[in-house]
Amino acid sequence: MRNILIIGAGRSASSLIKYLLEKSTQENLHITIGDLSLELAQRKTENHPNAKPIALDINNVEQRQSEIQKADIVISMLPAHMHIDVAKDCVRFKKNMVTASYISDAMQALDEEVKANGLVFMNEIGLDPGIDHMSAMKVIDEIRSKGGKMILFESFCGGLVAPESDNNLWNYKFTWAPRNVVLAGQGGAAKFIQEGKYKYIPYHKLFRRTEFLEVEGYGKFEGYANRDSLKYRSVYGLDDILTLYRGTIRRVGYSKAWNMFVQLGMTDDTYPMENSETMSYRDFINSFLPYHPTDSVEIKTRLQLGIEQDDIMWDKLLELDLFNANKIVGLKNATPAQILEHILSQSWSLQPEDKDMIVMYHKFGYEINGEKKQIDSKMVCIGDDQTYTAMAKTVGLPVAMATIQILNGKIKTPGVQLPIHKEVYEPILKELEEFGVIFKETEMPYVGYNPDRLLGN
Description:
Layout (H helix, E strand, L loop, with lengths): L1 E6 L6 H14 L1 E7 L2 H8 L5 E5 L5 H10 L2 E4 L6 H10 L3 E4 L5 H4 L2 H6 L3 E3 L8 H15 L3 E13 L16 H5 L7 E5 L2 E5 L8 E6 L3 E7 L17 E9 L2 H11 L16 H6 L10 H9 L6 H8 L16 H13 L7 E13 L2 E12 L7 H18 L7 E3 L4 H11 L7 E6 L12
Parallel strand pairs: 1-2, 1-4, 2-3, 4-5, 5-6, 6-15, 7-12
Antiparallel strand pairs: 7-13, 8-9, 10-11, 11-12, 13-14, 14-16
Helix pairs in contact: 1-14, 7-15, 14-15
């Protein structure tokens, strides 16, 4: 038997574990699933004969190293900052490793040792990062093989609620880590390049600079810029590209509404608020408003944000019950961002019958034989239920598929890497189609940022 160790059995591991269990007999696999919660690991294995659930604390060095030594390959589904100890053990005991997380500086620093030991450390092989890299490189490589030169690449991705479960005014529910949603866009200006010019969007302007996207059968979406679109320029071989922009997808109207929280200061995570434990929701919003002897919190909020009486923005705030004087925050020494996350979780948590949805949209502009052309590539994936969500499917399946490919010697280029090479993306994208992760590519007229170009002006 070939031994796979999976560390972390959380939400994103559901489809990953299911896939490997279904392949276990055919591929001669024994899968150990380790999690701090033995009960969670047991639930995910469903008494499968080729699986062994264990309680695993990665801070227990002896136990961690013992389990890694027994494995042929290690899958880490831990939070990103916790991969590095596992990675160092994998180098020490000469084990291949797979994660869905961004390559950290600490992980990249292991590259020489990983290569010297002939190991594959595959990272960024989830959804975003992951499927975005693979689907983008497939088209970029095809354009290059025809002799085309890339001039524009835009890439958008979003975890949303499926249309049949979209029943609030924000057209949004938490389908992934709520904290990441609340802190989105912080930590520096968004930077990208448009028509050869570097562009920057500071955090306080981020949610008012959006692009619109149309996806057939699903309607209109908007995208706001990710923090650093330029870091993949050289990775994708796009150093000379004129336009490079990566963004996050939401339903139209979300960003404008979210900007209210940004402008009030509710997304700040840098300081604790006094008396947060006993604070009411109404006290929370009032904390960010000027004192007035007679105006109510509602009137002050409207004046501060410039919201008219009949504006849908007002209804969105009311829907969250933000002005309730009887609902208590109940969090000690909480930051504004932590309190906001708590309040939103009351309204935006997925219900048992809800389904989630992933939308990905790439635009490729290129020049060939003196002519400018464009390809749009779109993918929509809808979850099955609360266990096998679209997010779990799109994050977990590529991880599982890459693991099998590495075990079978199909992916063999050593080093700390991401899935941008044909030996990696080609078989995985093909297999993902069997699970409903299908990209529809369409030839489009190239517009760039000059719509009048089509009019011949």
